[in-house]
C-alpha cells in the first residue's frame, strides 16, 4: 500500500539555518544509537525517541505530522591502541561519520501504518537526502577548533639583525654554552644558539638561551626544532614574555643561511606541549600511586560530554541536580513531558531532560565502543550526555554564554538561576531557586552623628574575599609553566573559611554625605545575615591584579567536612540605643550634594593610564572609595561600547519633586532578578533616565537609597510587599555543611578546566563520600581534601 502523504505540501527540505534534531530526542537523551533508532519528523525536523517512552508518537499526535525518517546508527568497533595515541595538535581531526558508524534509515508513516515507505516516492528523496546532509543541532553548537590566537609584537616587527654569519648545516650544531643539541633556540638578532628551559615531558635544557637574552638584551628567538617548511615555528619574545609570530620569519632565517623550505620539524612546539601538559594536568583521574580512579555508574552518576569549552556548564549542572530541590522539581519520571510545540526551545523541557539524563541512571554505563583488551583491563568511562539544547537556551541572546569560549562558572550559575526563576512553568511554590534565597541586612552608621540606617537585600549567593598573603620565596622550589619557563613557585599563606567570612562581614568606611547632620566624614557599612538559605552558594574571590591583568592565585582556603556554625554572622537588627536616620534625609542630601569622585582614588587610576571618564565611571560603579575595586571594574568593562561616553552622574538628583517618570516594568523586573527590590529599582531608573546599566551602577554606589514607593500615586509601600515573608530562615543555630564544590584549575576563570565534587551516597560505601564529575568521567574522588582548598564555588547545605 502506497503512503498518501509523500506529496504533502508541508514537506520541504530544511533550510541552511534550520535545526535538524537527528542525533538525540528533544525530550530525553535516547538517540540514534539505541536499538530502535530515532525518528526525525520530516515536517519540522524534531527528533523523537522510539523506545519505551516513544516521544516520537507523542509528537505525531500533538502535531499531526505523520511522516518520519528513522535513523539507526551502530558504532564500528575499534580496538584501543596501547599505549593510547598521543594528542599532538590542538585542532580537531576531521573524521567523518562514515568512518565511525554504520547507519541505516527508513521512512515511516504513522497514519498509514507503513514502516518502510519507498524513499524515492513523492518528495521524499530530496527531503530525506537534505535531512541526512544537514548540520545537526549539536554540530551547529560545537567548537570547531582549539587554535590559540597569537600575534606579532613591536620586537618581531621591528627586529634589527647583526651582520650575517654561517650556522652549521642541518643539525645546526649545539648550544653555544653546553653540549645539548635539542631544545635549541636561535637568537634572531645575533644568531646565537642557546638551549631552552627544561620543559614538560623530560625535555632537557639549561636555560642558556635565556641567559643570552638577559646579557645581550636581544628579545626574539626561534625554536629550531619547531621549524616547518610551511613557515610556522615557535617564536618567543622575552621582552614581552609571550609567544609571538614573526611576519618576516623566512627572511630573518635566511639572513643566517637557513632555508625554511628545507626544514623538517623534529620537536614538539610549545603549544603542542601545552596541550599535552593540560591533558595530564587537568584534574587527574588516577590516585597518587598511579591507579585508575574507580568509575561510578548508576542513578546520579551520569557524566556530561564536553561540547567544546563547556566544562563550566557541566560542573555547575552536576552540582545543582545533586540537590533535592532541583531533583524533585525536574526529575518527574511518572509524568508526561511538558506540552510544548517546540520542545528543543523550551527551558522547562530541557531542564527535565537533563534531570532525567543525570538522575535516572538510564544512560550511566561504560562506553561500549571501547573493547577492553589484556592491555586495557580497566573499566571504560561513560560516553557522557551532550546537553547541547540546554546550553543553547541558556546562552540564547547572551553576549558570552552564546559563544564557544570558556566562561566563568559562577557567572553561569547566577544566569541560570535567573532563567529558572523566570521560567513560565515555575509556580512560586515550586521555584527551586528559593533554596538559595536569603536576606542580608546592611547597616550604615554616620561617623559624625552616629545615626543609623538598616536595609534588607534579598540575595542568592555571597562572594567572599580571600586575603592574598605571599610566603617568602623558596628558590629551590622551581616550577615549569605551560610555556616551559622556569620560575620560583609562589606560595601563599593558607586562610580559613572563618577569616574570609570575618572580612566579608567586617565594617568598612564608605564616602557618603549624611543627610541628617550634613557631615562628609562618611559612614561605616556592615553587612550581616538576617536569614540563612537552605543552600548557600559561596564564591571565593582569589583574584588580584598582576601586570594589569586579574589573575587567580592558588590561595588555600581551609574548609572542613564538619558543619560550620554561621550564628556569629547573624545581624542583631536595630538596637535600643541606636537612632535611625530620618526617612527624608536622602532627598535633602541629594538636592544639596552632588556626587563627586574620590580625588585620591581618581588620581591613582589616572596614574595607571585610564582616561578620566573611565575612572569616574568605575568609581561611581564601585562605591567611590577603593581604587583596586574600580580598576577591576575597568578591566571587565573595557569592551563596553559606551565606556568613553561622558555621563552626568547627578542627572535626576534634583528632580524628585517633579512629576513621576514612567518606568518600564520589565526593567524593574530585570533589576529585581539581580537582587534589588522594586522601590530601589524604580528610584535607580528614575535617577538615571531609565538606563539599565547606569541604574545598576547607581544602585551599587548608593547603598543607603531607600527606594521610590510611588507607583503612580501612593507614597506607601504596597501592603502585600510589607506582608511578604522574607526569604530564608532566621532560626538558630545555623549549621551549614559543605555538600558540593565547583573547582577550577588555571590562572584565569576564562581558561583552564572546571570539575565538580559532590558529597553523596556512593554504591558499596557505608557512608556518604565524594564523587568527582569531570565532564563525561564520573569516579570516586581521591584528592577532594586538596581540591576543597582551591574550589571556586562552594555549596553549603543548612542542616
TrEMBL record:
Residues 707-731 are annotated as: Disordered. Residues 302-799 form the USP domain. It comes from the Eukaryota. SMART domains: UBA (SM00165), ZnF_UBP (SM00290). Its EC number is 3.4.19.12. Zn(2+) binds at residues 175, 178, 195, 208. One of its GO terms (molecular function) is zinc ion binding. GO terms for biological process: protein deubiquitination; proteolysis. It comes from Bimuria novae-zelandiae CBS 107.79. This is Ubiquitin carboxyl-terminal hydrolase. The active site is at 311 (nucleophile), 753 (proton acceptor).
